[in-house]
Amino acid sequence: MAAFTDARRRARRAWKQSRSRWETKAAAVLDPMSTTRFLARVDRVYADAWCALSRVYGSRTDVVTLIDDLLDVALSAVAVRPRGLQQRDATREIDAEWFLDESMLGYVCYADRFAGDLRGVRDRIDYLRELGVTYLHLMPLLAPRDGPDDGGYAVADHRAVDPRLGSMGDLRDLASALHEHDISLCVDVVVNHTAREHEWARKAMAGDPRYRDYYLVFADRSQADDYERTLPEVFPERAPGNFTWVEEVDGWVWTTFHDYQWDLNWANPAVFGEMLSVMLDLANTGVDIFRLDAVPFLWKRLGTDCQNQPEAHLLLQALRALVFIAAPAVLLKAEAIVPPGELVQYLGGHDLEQRECHLAYHNQLMVMLWSAVATRDAVLPTHALTRMRTPPPQTTWMTYVRCHDDIGWTVTEEDAAAAGVNGFAHREFLVDFFAGDFPGSFARGARFGFNPQTLDARISGSTASLAGIEQALDLHDDDLLSAAVSRLLLLHAVIYGWGGIPLLYMGDEVALRNDHGYLDEAARASDNRWMHRPKMDWEAAECRHTAGTLEFRVFRGLQRLAQSRASVAQLHGHGTTAPLWADNRHVLAWRRRHPRFGSLLGIANLHDSTQSADAQLCGHAALSTPRDVLQLWTATLRDGRIHLPPLSVVWLTDS
Ligand code: GLC
Ligand code: GLC
C-alpha cells in the first residue's frame, strides 16, 4: 500500500510538470470549454494510468513519454468527436451511474442473423423496445478474415465494418438511431488477438521486425514447450495446443484459440497504443460499451496458466483511464469467463483507486442456474453464490442465462465439498444431463470441447432446447411443454431480479430451438456453438401476438419481467444481493437490499411439483406487507409458509 501511495504521489508530480504543456496542446485543437473538460479528466485519472502503465511497462520504456503518446491519441480523438457524442459525455460525466438504473436490459445478437445487416437492425428497433431493451450488444461486426472466423472473433481489419453488414457510416447511423430510442450500443473489441490476415500479421510475415514484436513468436519450439507445460487448451478438439508453426515468420506463433488467431504481445507498449486508437475511433461512431474479448488471456507468464495475471488487470485499468479521458460516456465490459474467485477482480478494486471495467459477466450465476434446474436443488448454488464478493461501487454484473458461447462448468471443489457433492462427478453429471444422455433429462444440448486428457467437456445448446422445450415439442406433450416454458421463464426471472444488467440472447424470447443449419456450412460445421446462434425466425416471432402459442407465452412472460424489473427500485445498482437459505432444498431464495429503497425477495421453486418454504427464512421478516410484484405465478402464504407452484418465482417487495 505504501508503495502504491508513493507511486500516486510521483504520478501527480509528473502530471503537474506536464500540465501547462498539455493545456497549450489542447487549446490548439479544442474550443475553450472542451479544453477545460479534457484537462479536468486528465487531472482525475492521470495517476491511474501512470500507476498501471509504470508497473507493466516501467522496465521497458519511459512511462511519462508513453503516457504523452497515449494522451496524443486521446486528444486527437476528442478533437474529432462529434458534437452529439460530446453532449453524451457531458451528461454521463454528471450522471456517471446511468447504467446502474433498474430499467437497464440488454439484448445480444449477430446483426446478420437478427436482421440481415446494420440497416436491418435499425428497422427492428421497435421490436427491441417491445421487450424493454435499453442496451444492444451486436456480436463482432468488424471485418473478419475469409473462411472460418470464429464467429467474427478473427478480425482482419479493426478499422472497417464487415462489408456484408455495412459500413462505418451505417454503424454511425445505427448508433444514433439507437440513442434516439434510449438504447446504448455495445460492440466487441477483440483485444487479445488478430486474424493472421490482419495487416500487422502480414507485415510480420513480410519480415518487418516492428510488427513481429506485435505478436508472440518463438524461434525455438522448446520455448513454446516451456509454456505449454502449464497451459490449458480452449479448443482441444479443433485447435489443440497453444502454438502454431508459421513458415513465414520462421517460428512458433502463440495462438490460444484457433491457429488463425494470433495472440497480441501486450508486453509491447505499441500494441497498447494501437488498440487504444482502435477503440477511440469506434467510440467516435457512437459505441457506448466495449465488450473486451478474452481479457484474462492478455498477459503471459511462464509456469502459469497465463490467465488472470496481475498485468492483465493493470492493462484494463490503464485502458479505463485513457478511454475516460477521450470518451467519458463509454463503458468497458470484461469478457472474463473464469473461475468464480477471479471474476469480481475485473470490476476493479474496492478502494475505488484501481478502477477497471464497469461491467463483467456473472458467469457463476449462469452456471449455477443450470445446475439448479438440472438437479432441482438449491444447495450448491446457494453455497457458491454466497461465496461471491459484491462488486465495487459504480460497477455491476451482466446477468445472463446463456450467451453465444458454450457453457463451461466452473463448479469449484470447494463449493462442491460444501454442498456434499463430488466436483468432478457433478461436472460430469451436468455434461451428461445437458447433452440429453442422463436418464430423465429434459435437455437437448451437445458436448463441446471434450478434452480426453482432463475429461472436461462443456455444453452447447439454445436456452429453449436446454430447458426442455425441444423435447416437449417432439413428444407432443403439453404438460412437459408448460413445465419447460416455466423453466425458461424461471431462469430469466432470476437473472432479471438478481441485480445487474440482464442480457437476453436473441431468439430466446420466442423459444427458438437448436439450429442445425451450421452443419451445411463448411466454415462452421465443426463448431457446434452455432447450434445456439440461430437465425431469427420472424415468422415464429409474429406468433408472439397470438394467444396460446408458445411464442406468445414466452414473449409475454419476458415482457412482464422487463416491466416489473423497471418498476423495482431495489434493483438499482446501489443494491446488493445475497442468497438466503430456505428450509427446502428445492427452493432458491435471494435478497436484494437497497440502502434506501429496502428489500426485494426473490423466491424460486426449482421443482416440478408444488413446494413450500418457511417465510421467515426466505426473508419475509424484512417486509411488512409483502406483495409479489412479478405476478407471473401465484404463490400463497399459509401457516407461515410460502407455497409456490411448480417451477415458479415470486419477487416480493413491500407494497
Ligand atoms: C471469446 C468469445 C468466443 C471466442 C473467443 C476467442 O471468448 O466469446 O466466442 O471464440 O473469445 O476470440
Ligand atoms: C471459454 C473460455 C473463453 C472461450 C470460450 C470459447 O469460455 O474461457 O475464453 O472463448 O470458452 O467458447
**Main β-sheet, spatial strand arrangement:** 1-2-5-11-12-13-14-17
CATH superfamily of the domain at 362-570: Glycosidases
Report the average pLDDT across residues.
97
Bound molecules: alpha-D-glucopyranose
**Architecture (CATH level 2) name of the domain at 362-570:** Alpha-Beta Barrel
Helical amount: 25-40%
Write a structural description:
With 655 residues, this protein is an alpha/beta fold. It is 40% helix and 17% strand. It contains 23 helices and 25 strands. A hairpin with a 3-residue loop joins strand 19 and strand 20. The longest helix has 28 residues, at 2-29. It is globular and about 75 Å long. The mean pLDDT is 97. Bound molecules: alpha-D-glucopyranose (2 copies). One alpha-D-glucopyranose binds next to loops. The site of one alpha-D-glucopyranose has 9 residues, from loops.
Throw out a few tags for this protein.
23 helices; single chain; TIM Barrel; binds alpha-D-glucopyranose; alpha/beta; eight-stranded parallel β-barrel; 25 strands; five-stranded antiparallel beta sheet; globular; Immunoglobulin-like; 655 residues
Layout of secondary structure:
Layout (H helix, E strand, L loop, with lengths): L1 H28 L2 H26 L5 H17 L3 H12 L11 E4 L1 H5 L2 H6 L1 H6 L4 E4 L3 E3 L10 E7 L6 H13 L3 E6 L3 E3 L3 H7 L3 H4 L4 E2 L2 H8 L14 E4 L4 E4 L6 E3 L5 H15 L5 E4 L17 H17 L4 E4 L5 H4 L15 E3 L1 H13 L3 H8 L9 E5 L12 H6 L4 H12 L11 E6 L4 E5 L2 H4 L2 H6 L3 H20 L3 E5 L32 H5 L7 H17 L9 E5 L6 E8 L3 E8 L5 E4 L11 E3 L7 E3 L2 E4 L3 E7 L1
Parallel strand pairs: 1-2, 1-17, 2-5, 5-11, 11-12, 12-13, 13-14, 14-17
Antiparallel strand pairs: 3-4, 6-10, 7-9, 8-9, 15-16, 18-19, 19-20, 20-25, 21-24, 22-25, 23-24
Helix pairs in contact: 1-2, 2-3, 2-13, 3-12, 3-13, 12-13, 15-16, 15-21, 21-23
The site of one alpha-D-glucopyranose has 9 residues, from loops.
